[in-house]
Specification:
Elements (H helix, E strand, L loop, with lengths): L4 H7 L4 H12 L3 H6 L7 H15 L4 H5 L1 E4 L2 E4 L12 H10 L7 E5 L5 H9 L4 E6 L2 H13 L5 E5 L11 E6 L32 H9 L4 E10 L5 H10 L3 E7 L5 E8 L4
Parallel strand pairs: 3-4, 3-6, 4-5, 6-7
Antiparallel strand pairs: 1-2, 7-9, 8-9
Helix pairs in contact: 1-2, 2-4, 6-7, 9-10
Bound molecules: S-adenosylmethionine.
Amino acid sequence: MNHTVTRALAAAPLDPVDARALLRHALGVDAAYLIAHAGQTLTDVQGALFSALVARRRAGEPVAYIVGAREFFGLEFKVTPAVLIPRPETELLVEFALERIAPERACRVLDLGAGSGCVAVSIAKHRPLARVVAVDRSTAALAVARDNVRQHAVTNLELLESDWFDALAGQQFDVIVANPPYVAADDPHLRQGDLRFEPAAALAAGTDGLDCIRLISAAAPQYLSGGGWLVYEHGYDQAARCRELLTQAGFSEVFSRADLAGIARVSGGQWCARS
Ligand SMILES: C[S@@+](CC[C@H](N)C(=O)[O-])C[C@H]1O[C@@H](n2cnc3c(N)ncnc32)[C@H](O)[C@@H]1O
């Protein structure tokens, strides 16, 4: 006798949120369908598929990689193991950029380390007059980002393969956002939980985790127009050091902003060209 939707969910040895996401994926339905069809009996094929997905999750594979998607800033993004799984705290970067870009203003935005493209696509979608450039060094990540650009029908976003600013000589931007790798290379968290499955090149950045942030803080002024802003995400304990790096690089209005848990997760500053 096969399980009903309710029974299959209750019997799955998983966090209930994960179990629902996997069952939705196995059945090819949305959340509302699961609620409305709680008494529906799974077919043999559906039951077997759900069991296989549950086994993968039990083995540690992140739900986002199993179902191939993750929601970010109200949009659904394709994700594969070639890209970081978009995180809720990264939405702070998008919020900051949208605050700085009036909807009726044409301006230039740069996203460093595009990954799935979640940050750049969200900004481009909400600010159709902005020209957004997003770079990544990973060809595989850019292929995923390209799919997401297509999926969201964004036409004001250009993706470039580049080692940070290398392909951007002579270009200037009004806002630069970045979610660079910022985990210390020997941090034990890299060998735990979901991080084990994510690309190391998206996470680790030298002995103190600040290699990329140091480089970006120092190089960004060359690519910012006068009055332009740089803002980047960093680790939960890196805010003070990031503000120092921004100040050393000559930024003013240096700030940090906290996530919903009250932890400073992004820092930035304004570039006012020196005379
Ligand atoms: C933490 S992930 C952020 C991905 C995406 N922006 C997000 O927030 O989900 C960092 C990204 O930076 C890229 N990256 C790492 N080193 C880079 C470099 N030297 N130049 C350009 N991109 C780089 C990685 O490939 C990865 O996609």
